[in-house]
TrEMBL record:
ATP binds at G91, G93, R94, K114, D126, G127, R177, R184, D263. It comes from the Bacteria. Belongs to the SELO family. It catalyses: L-seryl-[protein] + ATP = 3-O-(5'-adenylyl)-L-seryl-[protein] + diphosphate; L-threonyl-[protein] + ATP = 3-O-(5'-adenylyl)-L-threonyl-[protein] + diphosphate; L-histidyl-[protein] + UTP = N(tele)-(5'-uridylyl)-L-histidyl-[protein] + diphosphate; L-seryl-[protein] + UTP = O-(5'-uridylyl)-L-seryl-[protein] + diphosphate. Keywords: ATP-binding, Magnesium, Manganese, Metal-binding, Nucleotide-binding, Nucleotidyltransferase, Transferase. This is Protein nucleotidyltransferase YdiU. Its EC number is 2.7.7.-, 2.7.7.108.
């Protein structure tokens, strides 16, 4: 379907597909909303009217207290495998899609409230969010954007002036999330579960029109759609791995069809390099540990393939054979992206030369429990002093360093390897001071630091180092 370029002209193309895919729903008003943050750069890109930019009018809209005439709030339906267990109906239990907009580059985005109250899919929940998960998602999603990782974005964060009951009573908040779409592998699973072939075809065509319009000329568009989603997810997970990022809850309802990172509940960045690292409190067996993310990506893609089988070929056996052939390329595709990302991090352009150097370096990092971010950042220094200190000038490191110096052909590594990441203990400090004292000083300072993650600045020297032993955060929580 055509998407015409218009100035802030909200549309609702997804709702036009079928009323089976969403439930109309209004946000639940809150008592005393206050601004936490507003993203003016993103608002300018989205052509949001300036009367909503951190104003009283904007506060009413982004708290859910007022529904503007251009919004048609709806909770989206989806299914999902949660820790490998299929649930045929999940859906937005605490989120509402307000509208779609075309940005100044004619790209389509969803604008969604998250934490705005109960919906028909709340499954007994309160539909609210404590302030902690809102601050975490705002900081981490915007940091991921600055780190050049495809991601949903944060447009606004608002305190509700109300309490949310979890293990304890906590201040409530609402996030305004922006995404290229909120369509997930779990959405496709939901549509398949409806057993309506025509709707399944319309849905797949919509995904192609919105995210992969180049496939409209393909002789086999639905197989090509599988290939395209697989390609973007392989590239995305390679970027995660190259930064030490651990998503924490890679259920199929948390894998987007657009290739963006979505849902930052129990996410974290690894510090000391250990492939088995996990943080999520609910991931008891480490299904979504750092080292497992590529395999889980493949598993999720296989579930997406299942939803497309009726469209790939009328003959079920042929459809399975074609989809299987595509899926079997995932690992090689991922590894190609991964080794390219990692080769850039050490400045060695020849992959065959880079790969053994990277493997040796990671082994050294694991053996000595070296901070992932600093280990790569310090390679971009003009002198080796900081790296020497990091590895305590060990013989094994010195041998590796000499071999690497002979192979490297890029001195611009500070443009590739960040100085700053959203370290767990810093996010926790921001959350605790906001929760316990209503103080956003640390949150605001983190925003400033993470806005330019590749540039070291003296004023953030105190936040450059990994957590001390007493500061380490070993478990993260969803907040639902």
């Amino acid at each position: 379907m055509p998407f015409s370029p218009l100035p802030f002209n909200p549309e609702h193309s997804y709702q036009d597909l079928s009323d089976q895919l969403f439930a109309p729903c209004e946000a639940t008003p809150v008592r005393a909303p206050q601004w936490i943050a507003f993203n003016e750069d993103l608002a300018e890109q989205l052509q949001i009217p300036q009367e909503l930019w951190a104003t009283d009018e904007g506060l009413q809209v982004f708290s859910g207290n007022q529904t503007p005439e251009w919004a048609t709030p709806a909770a989206l339906a989806y299914a999902g495998h949660q820790f490998a267990n299929f649930v045929p109906q999940l859906g937005d239990g605490r989120a509402l899609l307000l509208t779609e907009v075309l940005d100044k580059h004619n790209q389509r985005f969803d604008i969604q409230l998250k934490g705005s109250g109960r919906t028909p899919y709340s499954r007994g929940g309160d539909g609210r969010s404590p302030i902690g998960p809102v601050l975490r998602e705002y900081l981490v999603s915007e940091a991921m954007h600055k780190l050049n990782v495809p991601t949903t974005r944060a447009l606004a964060a608002v305190a509700t002036g109300e309490w949310v009951q979890r293990e304890t009573a906590q201040p409530g908040a609402i996030l305004t999330r922006v995404a290229k779409s909120h369509l997930r592998v779990g959405t496709a699973q939901y549509v398949l579960h409806l057993r309506d072939y025509n709707l399944l075809k319309r849905f797949a065509d919509y995904v192609i029109d919105r995210h992969y319009p180049e496939l409209n000329n393909s002789e086999a568009p639905y197989l090509a759609l599988l290939e395209s989603v697989q390609l973007r997810q392989a590239q995305l997970i390679a970027k995660w791995m190259s930064l030490g990022f651990i998503h924490g809850v890679m259920n199929t309802d948390n894998m987007t069809l657009s290739g963006e990172t979505i849902d930052y509940g129990p996410c974290a960045f690894m510090e000391a390099y250990e492939p088995a690292t996990k943080f999520s409190f609910i991931d008891k067996r480490g299904r979504y540990a750092y080292q497992n993310q590529p395999a889980i990506g493949l598993w999720n893609i296989a579930r997406f393939a299942e939803t497309l089988l009726p469209l790939i070929d009328d003959d079920p056996d042929k459809a399975v054979a074609q989809a299987t052939t595509t899926i079997e390329t995932f690992q090689a595709t991922y590894e190609d992206f991964y080794w390219k990302e990692m080769s850039r991090k050490i400045g060695v352009s020849d992959i065959n030369t880079a790969k053994p150097l990277i493997e040796r370096y990671l082994n050294l990092m694991q053996a000595q429990q070296i901070d992932f971010t600093q280990a790569f950042r310090f390679l971009g220094d003009q002198t080796p002093e900081r790296a020497q200190r990091l590895f305590e000038n060990s013989d094994s490191w010195q041998l590796w360093f000499n071999d690497w110096q002979e192979a490297t052909d890029n001195s611009q590594l500070h443009q590739v390897n960040p100085a700053y990441i959203p370290r767990n203990h810093l996010i926790e400090q921001a959350i605790q001071t906001a929760t316990n004292h209503g103080d956003l000083t640390i949150f605001n300072r983190l925003q400033t630091m993470l806005a330019r993650p590749f540039i070291e600045r003296d004023e953030f020297n105190d936040w450059f180092e990994p957590a001390k032993s007493e500061e380490r955060i070993t478990q993260t929580f969803c907040g639902t």
